Amino acid sequence: MEEFEGLDFKGALKLLADRAGVALEPYSREATESKSEKEKLYEVMEEATKYFENNLKESEEILEYLKSRGLNDKSIKDFRIGYALLDWRLLYDHLKSKNFTDSEIERAGLAKKPTPSASGTSPLVRGREGGGFYDRFRGRIIFPIADSSGRIVAFSGRIFVDDGKSAKYLNSPETPIFKKSSFLYGIDKAKESIRKHDFSIVVEGQFDLILSHQAGYRNTVATSGTALVGSEKTEDNIINSLGLLQRLSNNIVFVFDSDKAGVNASMRATPIALALFKDMQVKAAQVKDGKDPADLISKNGPDAWKKVISGSIHIIDFLVQSVKAMNKNKDELKIQVEIAEKVIPFINKIQNPVKRAHFLSSISKESGISENIIKDIANSRLDKDIEDNKFIEKIEKSLNRRQDYIERKLLGIAFWQKTLATPAVDFEMILNKLGEASKKYEDVKQDLIFEAEVFYQDADLMKKDTEEMFLNLEEEMLKEELSKKMRELYLAEEKKDQSLATQIFKECQALNDKLQEIKNSRIKVV
């Protein structure tokens, strides 16, 4: 059921229909009045995607370029790559011919109005003065960005002929169906593989992602066109990007560019990943010699990419090595100062005492800074970390929304089955286990029943999902309790209360054992 997270009801319905091979009712303009604004925007984006795809089929030069970058026909088709012709209003005119309104086209982020000049007049747009709309994407290779169900919500356009004035990449603005912090490029195609292989790979660009998938690493997502970790800390940013990956797997490998920007990106990702997702194995790797993953795979093949992924190391070790590599011409003292400023503060984000001790030792060996000095620097940062810790606790609380999601699905099944003469599952067991939680959903009872009826045409699937959801619910509760205990352990160690720390550590071990039992039970079923 995790694959439905982050989707509205209709998005989840589409995912199910696609899986079952069932065609949903085709788009009908007569029904627009009853459709939500979001549904209309999804329809605009789908029509635009088809338009761009058709353009690409007729653009031999663009197709040759894509293949020169290593993309094969299957990838071009699977990722629905397209092309926006170098013209002011061709997409706009096409969408208008399909009876979409100016408002729908603009709100989808596909067209803009001319900005008035300093004289107060608007520039000419293909013969029309003032007020006329023009296409946002022109002369660009188009990479559609999809939500978890595969619905297109945004575009990222790479310029084909550099005019020296335009940005290399142009991304859709935020719209009612697209929030940059809520999407990772390729997540719709990567999620099953991430679960299967129990780790995700995060790269930067679209070509990097597509070539990684071609090389057999379908558990790859990309940040291009989206916002994995921005300069501002926002609840949505963290939950919807790293949060989504953490729900799929506790293991993650970042592959950063080898330049300074890549190191800076790793600096932004590190504190969030270490502090918020304590169970995650956060690793990082780098493609050497100034290459990016796409170039490496295209020129050296899948084995070279496999070597990069296999050579990933813990992100703390990666940061130390990166700082040393970026400053190899500086004297040892300057390198030590930079490590002290940029890496040592992250020690406080590691709440597992064994891991923290390990990295104190490894940073000391790599940098030549004594462990005592590293501890002093880390402790001097504690007061500055208070705001971060409060923020993290707030995020952790909001992650409990996953429990609400599971409760909602289970209660929908129970309420529905209760109305049937011959129920397929034990609804009384569900209601008894959830207890008082059912009272929260009395006002939406009929909605939950309707959702359950649509989702579960197959009684066997419903039984299996019910069992899995109870495991998920237990797992979430155990993770929440383990998170609390880890914080208590951290505080006990700071106070040097060894007796209390030992007791809490045993409690953490017991909780971890229970989580492992749930994981093992799933493996046996598979």
Low-confidence blocks of residues = 1-6, 19-34, 117-130, 229-239
Please, what is the average pLDDT? 79
What structural class should be given to the helix and strand makeup?
Answer: alpha/beta
Proportion of strand residues: 5-15%
State the distance separating the first and last CA atoms: 16 Å
Task: List the domain count as a whole number.
Answer: 3
Going by CATH, the architecture of the largest domain would be 3-Layer(aba) Sandwich
The count of DSSP E runs of length 2 or more, i.e. the number of strands, is: 13
CATH topology label of the largest domain:
Dna Topoisomerase Vi A Subunit, Chain: A, domain 2
- How are the strands of the biggest sheet laid out side by side? 10-9-11-12-13
CATH class of the largest domain: Alpha Beta
Helix content estimate: 55-70%
Give me the Rg, rounded: 26 Å
Question: How would you describe this structure to a colleague?
Answer:
- With 526 residues, the chain is an alpha/beta fold.
- The protein has 3 domains: 36-168, DNA primase, catalytic core, N-terminal domain (DNA primase DNAg catalytic core, N-terminal domain); 187-395, 3-Layer(aba) Sandwich (Dna Topoisomerase Vi A Subunit, Chain: A, domain 2), CATH 3.40.1360; 400-525, no CATH class.
- The protein has helices spanning 9-20, 37-57, 60-68, 73-78, 90-97, 102-107, 187-197, 206-214, 235-240, 242-248, 260-276, 293-300, 302-310, 315-326, 332-342, 353-367, 371-380, 386-398, 401-418, 427-434, 445-455, 459-494, 498-525; strands at residues 82-84, 111-112, 124-125, 128-129, 134-135, 140-146, 152-159, 169-171, 200-203, 220-222, 251-256, 281-286, 313-314.
- It has a 5-stranded mixed sheet with strand order 10-9-11-12-13, sandwiched between helices. A 4-stranded antiparallel sheet has the order 1-6-7-8, covered by helices on one side.
- Helix 11 links the parallel strand 11 (251-256) and strand 12.
- The protein is flat, with a radius of gyration of 26 Å.
- The two termini are 16 Å apart.
- 36% of the residues are buried.
- Mean pLDDT is 79; it is low at 1-6, 19-34, 117-130 and 229-239.
